[in-house]
User: Fold this.
Amino acid sequence: MRKQTRPPTYGLIAEFESPGDVIAAAERVHEEGYRRVDAYSPYPIEALSEAIGVHHSRLPLMVLIGGIIGGLAGYLMQYYLLVINYPLNVGGKPFHSWPQFVPITFECAVLGAALTAVFGMLALNGLPEPYHPVFNAPNFALASRDRFFLLIMSTDPKFEREQTAGFLKSLGPREVTDVEY
Amino acid sequence: MQRVDNLDDDRGIHTTPAVIEPGHDFGTVTDKISSIVLRKRTPLGWFVGFLISFMLTGMMMGTILYLVMTGIGIWGNNQPVGWAFDIINFVWWIGIGHAGTLISAILLLLRQEWRTSINRFAEAMTLFAVASAGLFPLLHTGRPWLAYWLFPYPNTMGMWPQFRSPLMWDVFAVSTYATVSALFWYTGLIPDLATLRDRARSKFGRVVYGMMALGWRGSARHWHRYEITYLLLAGISTPLVLSVHTIVSFDFAVGIIPGWHATIFPPYFVAGAIYAGFAMVLTLVIPLRKFYGLEDFITERHLRNAAKVMLATGLIVAYGYMMETFTAWYSANTYEEFMIRNRFFGPYAFYYWSLLVCNVVVPQLLWIRFVRHSTVALFVIAMFVNVGMWLERFVIIPISLHRDFLPSSWGMYSPTIFDFTMFFGTIGFFFFLMFLFLRFLPVISIFEMRTMVPEAQLPEEKLP
Amino acid sequence: MDAKTYTAPPSIGRYGSRALVFGVAALALAAAVSFLFPQEHIPGPVQFFRAYLVAYIFCTGLGVGSLAWLMLQHMTGGGWGLVIRRPLEAATRTIPLLALLFIPLAVSLFVHPGGESLYEWSDAAKVAGDEALRHKSAYLNPVFFIVRAVIYFAVWGVMMYFMNKWSAEQDKTGDPRIRRLMQDASAPGLLLFGLTVTFAAMDWGMSLEPHWFSTIYGLIIMVGWGLSALALMIIVLTVLGAEEPMEGVYAPLYFHDLGKLLLAMVMLFAYFSFSQFLIIWSGNLPEEIPYYLRRLRGWWQYVGLSLILFHFALPFAMLLSRGVKRHARALRNIAILMLLMRVVDLIFIIAPAAYQDTAEPTGIHWQDLLTMSAAAAGLFGIWLWYFFGQLTKRPLMPLGAPELEKTMEAAAASAHH
Assistant:
């Protein structure tokens, strides 16, 4: 602290030991009006993401669309290649052998849906992201073992370093610390 | 379908063992599973196993080299038996892979919590089995370096693949299956890779696991989408796995060879695949849990449930044999009747009766409770099923082919030494990949195991 | 919890008698049209038997399919099984009625007006002139056909008897060992179910075209029966849940689970049917393909198309939605659609079989559509009357089931979310 003003931080993080504590704290933080909040846990906790106000996701719709596009592409590919581009009599079957086009159509639909699901999830999560300020928090390595963290970002309109830190401390964490950029 | 299956405990005299033994918390689960990967010293047993599988892989590589230089004439395939070990092994391996997807996807949808400690392992099994399976049709093309011809791409020959052929359906089905299985497996691994990144002591480990973890930090927003994705993938994989073996069965059933052309083939192949796959799961898991001391996580309950699945799918397979035999008579078709008579009493009858013993007779022991509760008995029965399901494909493929419609076209089939080096080579290859996986990645999904420990049960979550 | 006895409301009896009146009238209509407006090649009695066969396979599926669900839910456990257990048991107790209703089919084997019959192989004159039928006559002959039917009903009847007896004992004593007993008996029970239904399906349905064969046929009928029984259970829950004492007992959670099972059955049925079609269509063999030639010509192909759209595509798309599965009314509407489409599918399976040898095999005959749907509605009405009668005989929840209380609490808890 050589200068008078503190360097800007990413936010304040509070460390908790049990899932129940962090959920309760997250609910209080949400009630208090903080919105630019994130929580970290070593396994998925539905109640925790609900507590910080995450409810809906566009993913299911995206996956449905991905599947439909995949299936259509699969069918139209077969139709174009075997009916329009190069019609060939095989075993006396009609050029447009729709029953025999079903298996590949199905596989393409599945492939489209699965690729959308995985890459859609990664994209919406902003991953891969090699560097993130939250990794600077002390003990954060334990977030992938048995610790739970609650972060309020400095960009939150209600963020006021001293007051927010005091509020977080009142929620019964192990520790509250600044997260440097 | 909810947690109500915990009620099994009070249904009578016998109590059901738990999915995870008591005394574990978030920390111990994490430490115990990640230590298998992160410890410095590699156990001697691992080296022995790795070396054996590596040598078998070398044998496979040698066979492939010779095959590529010479041609598939080094195998026993002939006229009329154009398909033999290559396709038997392909179907056998693909079938084994299916149990992996079944465990990870279908049991997740059915909210069967016991799957949690074996799903990672089962998914790995799927991937490696599909890798082994894929080698066979690839090499059977004779010129594997031209295998990309199977995909539709604009080319100077001005031609397209023949999409009415089930072999093309296979190309799409197996490549989709391999892709989706790999995605499913990797998606499941991401949080655990982050755990390894955070716990690795060597710089190299931190960097490699860190890159593979893609910067995962366990954010609640990320978990939310992650859970949705995981469920969606499970929902997508379930029909996919059924479709893959269905399409494998179409390879035979849409043709008109007696013994191949049967409408029962799709469900019968799917059931057979699950049957073989669960047998392979038991074959691998019973020694594994012993060796790595994972009895707390892979409990008696898992083995018993796998035994029940084997019994159920085995009965469906037996139903398939029965329907084939009855319908051959009922059809009043000379060729169909001859096909069954040839199976029962023809030159390869020994293999048909062995198949019935391995797949139908021996597994009936699983009706008896103490057999299901004996680890040794389960292992032995699983070995019978492994053999039986291989014999089933032998019965379907060469035995149907070697008696062509016209007696003048009849022939016999016997495999060559290279058929066997290729087959046992892929078994070695499978274990080679398995040993690498055991050493470098967590065999049990750590983050999902965390959800199973008592600490994770929130008061309001105790009720469904 | 203790205060509730879950006795069926009196309205169930009223629905039953209305169903009976409607059923008898519809069946009479089917008979009247069959006899008064016969088709050129199909005399009145044969027309009636064909219509009756559609109705009979449909209704037997409700009773026997319920038996399979009953045993399945004993094996898997779970709240969804507990809430439909009593309706399932009531449906299985219609099996004696179904055995009685088999008599017209047995009679049909001996009725050959003008050389025509319901089952070609039952006519000795036809068998004598056909080599394949002579070969099959060891299996396809009237006496053995009836003997087999007696065996099927004996097996189903015994399973029905014990499942209901044990369940009643459990109500009285609450003995936890009974749960185990029912669970242990269900696995071999399902095995017997699979075997009997397979051969019943081949006897009653497949042998209409005695030269044709398909090894998956038994599974298709089996899943069809399971589908219709499940759809009926969903409808019954919505009817019972509309008033006391069951109001509020059937939580969205259970509809969600039943909806998932319905989706699985819809997909499984489509999968089996399409597999059969694709394999036969691709093989294109002379002894197999006529089955589909009869069903893909003229107007019949549009019936086939309607099956793709309304037996698969529409319910599949709707059941993908979580909201629809949890919404009792929406799910009930899909279940009604499925019951209707099961009848359409049975007509599609059974009606074209009669036009094997005629020169004009392509058109749809209005007599078929009218008599078959009227007979299905009629027999269903009579069946419903008997089913509702059985439903009122026991509490609508298994009071002695050890998991009842926990399940009810779980339902109450889930309702708050």
Observations:
- The longest helix of chain C spans residues 44-76.
